[in-house]
Structure formats: C-alpha cells, structure tokens
Amino acid sequence: MSLSLIKTSFLGIQRVLFLHEELMKLPSFPRKALETNLTLYSGPMGKEVLGIDTLHKISWVKLVSRMFEVTSGFFAESADIHLFLNVVNGALLLHCEDASILRLCMSTYINAAHQFKNIFATNGYLLIVQPIVQIYANHQTNSLLCRTIEFVFKQFYILHRKPFILQMFGAVAPLLDTDAAHASYGTACQISPRAIFQLLQSLGQYTADPLDILELVEAEKPLKALDFCYQMDSEALTILDSISLCVTVISYASDSERGHQMLTVLDAILPHHLKHMQSLTTKKETPGGPRTELQMIHSISVCMKTLIYNCEALTR
Asked: What is the predicted pLDDT for the residue at 152?
C-alpha cells in the first residue's frame, strides 16, 4: 500500500487514513523507518550501501509527503502528525548533506506548514525546528546547506510570522550554549549563540533558493502570510524586532517558562548584535555611520528599560 501511495495520483482518503492509523499503532514506528547501520558505509561496499539507504529514506519521506497532501485539513492536533514529521527529521539528520534528501525534506516541511496551518500556528514548528537548527549550527562550513536552511526559515516566517518566531525561540532556548568557552562553536547537542544570530539575521535579508525548493511546494508562489492580519506586514524581520518580541513576552510574564526561554534567547543574541553593529561602523558599512549605531543602541536601551520595569517577579 505504501508504494501505491507514492505512485498513484488519485487516492481514496479512507486508504490513507487506514495506513495512518495502522502506523500510529506500531511500537516500532518511526524507528524502523530510520534504522541504519552506519558502520557499513565504510566497508568494501560502503558507497553502494549508502546509496541504498538514501533511496530508502527518500521513499519514506515521499510517503509522508503524499500522506500529508491527501489528509490536508483532516488533522487538528500535532499528535496526529508528530511521528510522521519524525520520519522527515530523522532522514534529514542522517543525510543532511545529500542535496536530494535536503531538497525533499525541506519542501515537505514547507508543504506541511501550509497544509496544516492551524497546527503550525500553535505548536507545529516545535516538532521540526530543533533538528534543523542543530544541523545548521553543526555544519557552518557547508555553505549550500546553511543557505538552504536560511531560505526555508524565511519561508516559515513568511507563512506564520510572529507565531513561528516564538516557537523557534521556545525550541532552541533549552539547547543554547551560552557558556563563553563554547559560545563560538557549540557542541553536537547544543547550539551556539553565533549560529542563532546568523540565522535570525538572514530573516531580514533577501535569501535565494539554492536548490529550487519552491518548485516542489504545492502552494501559490511566492508564498504569502496564511493569517490575513499579517498580510500587510513586512516580510523582513530585523534583529531589533526579535529583541523587542523577547522583551514583550518577558514583560508579560517574566516568571513563566516562556519568559525564561525568551531571557535565554535574549542573552544569546544581544551581545552578538552589539558586536555586529560595532563592526559595521568600524568598516564604514553602516548607512549614516556612528549616528545610526547610536540610534540602534538607544532603541535597545529603551527595550532594556522596559524589561527592567516589568520584571518585578524575577527580583522577588
């Protein structure tokens, strides 16, 4: 049935829902879909085994993508798609430097965000952001991979705007490595603040589509905000916007879990933003020169003053 789902253009919704229900019942799903013996990649038939495993993962991701396409609008809770997104997450983690897998997985994410817009507007991005950002942080030397992730995150922001940013901050906050000894590099399980700053910075710039991912996206192009209240807003997000968003959440409930997450993100990105502004002024790349930097510092100081005034719960 799974092969017919990939190959058939017309599918009865009952068949797809039946397969969805059966896979949800399996204790071995999605582990069986992602199992692989990495030691075989370096043996005498290593390249062949790697190729077979790559095709295996591509088939599973295509199956998940096809199921999402057919069941669009049927699921209202993240639990209904969580295990299937884990298949895509696992395939991406295993073969993130394979361009075909990267292109397929990223287009599947964008399609899912568009097809299940209500789920992703609440907590859907929490299911996918962590592995993608970890890959981004751990592969900074791979320019194609990093530019692709930056482009996809820009599309996520275009689709859901502030809800996406809030979920992104909530997902990465527990993994941020703010220790000064590791701030530049991070570890395999942690994310360096420098990587998060670079990723946020890319949301305020034009980002090209290096792998032509939008060709695989079943939506009107260019993508637009799914919530009508955001459709007139700018599609660019500056670092100052991110700082202001963190301060707003902290000021509303500084002693909440979400408030603590925003404090962690703020602690990670603010020093890098100040250093970045200083370097631009030194290189004479800032329009307006030192005056513009002074205005930016003033804006940040207003945010910090607001933060201090509204954090009485943290001083008690």
From this structure: 98
178 & 204 share domain:
yes
What pLDDT does 280 receive? Answer: 84
**70 and 176 housed in the same domain:** yes
pLDDT at 181: 43
* Beta carbons within 8 Å of 276's beta carbon, 6+ residues apart: 197, 201, 239
**Secondary structure (DSSP) of the chain:** -HHHHHH-SS--HHHHHHHHHHHHH-TTTTHHHH---GGGGGSTTHHHHHHHHHHHHHHHHHHHHHHHHHTTTT--SGGGTHHHHHHHHHHHHHSTT-HHHHHHHHHHHHHHHHHTHHHHHHTGGGGTHHHHHHHHHHTTT-HHHHHHHHHHHHHHHHHHSHHHHHHHHHHHGGGB---TTTTTT--SSSB-HHHHHHHHHHTTS----TT-GGGG--S-SS---SSGGGTTS-S---HHHHHHHHHHHHHH-TTSHHHHHHHHHHHHHHHHHHHHHHHHHHTT-STTTHHHHHHHHHHHHHHHHHHHHT-HHHH-
Residues 292 and 181 in one domain: no
Rounded Cα distance between 22 and 28, Å, is 11
pLDDT digits (tens, 9 = 90+) for 169-192: 999 999 997 764 444 445 567 899
Per run of 10 residues, the mean pLDDT along the chain (length 316 residues) is: 53 82 92 86 86 94 92 89 96 95 97 96 96 95 96 97 96 83 57 95 94 94 90 90 94 89 94 91 75 90 90 74
pTM: 0.92
Residue numbers of the domain that contains 255: 239-316
Among candidate residues 237, 262, 284, the one where a domain is terminated: 237
